[in-house]
Amino acid sequence: MKLRALGVGLILLVSLAATRVLAESSCPTAKDEIATDRPDVTNSSLVVPVGSFQSENGINFRSQDAGQIVDGTNTRWRLGIAPCLEVLVDLPTYFGPVRGPGSSGFADVEPAIKWQVSPIPGKVDVSLVAGVGLPTGAVAIAGPGMQPYLQMPWSWELHEGWGLSGMLTEFFRPSDVATPRITEATFAIEKKVSERASLFVEYVGDYPENARSSQLLNSGGLYHLSPTQQVDFHVGFGLNHNAPSYIVGVGYSFRIDGLFADKSR
Question: Which residues have C-beta within 8 Å of that of residue 236, sequence separation ≥ 6?
């Protein structure tokens, strides 16, 4: 309960602080390299530039509860609509058992809006996200009813290519009497190993109300084929029985700039 209260408090605190006027020059532009919400669970604290469309895609293979499951394409579309502001949507991901027990079907469509409320002095970037899972997928995969969520990804740039990042998310499940809320907390250590490549190690903890937690150790890396294209991979291992035994995934993302004029320039 203390963790959930802290999560709500942090989100509210940053929301109040975000009412200050942001300098438009601090927002990402088309001159910046692609920054994605994958392959780690921790999303980027940066939005996409104004007038840019970004498509992030991937596929995962996991072992859980004596079964093996593949899911894809884990597609997220992001569009910069104003300085430091984007809209995004998670398209339905298909889950299918490869071996052993497991449910099959599509996840929900999940639209959201993301507002970058940084930079904060000290090279800390923070964003606020509000979204909702619409009841379009299979109940066995996505759960019942609408599922709104609030999210706060952050990142802190250190020296010599090192960085810290994390994310706090509150998932609300009003139609699920047994588990009406889930708090998710992540923390990642990142290292830029070259001009184009980065590696990370990440902790992911899901803390459902009235149920036991799921904890995962995730690691992986990414490589920029160009300033607007990225390939990535990740490998995760469960830290308790409620998490997958292991999960392996790969992905490809790209960004298209200049779809409409950036009036902030």
Answer: 204, 216, 217, 218, 219, 244, 246, 247, 248
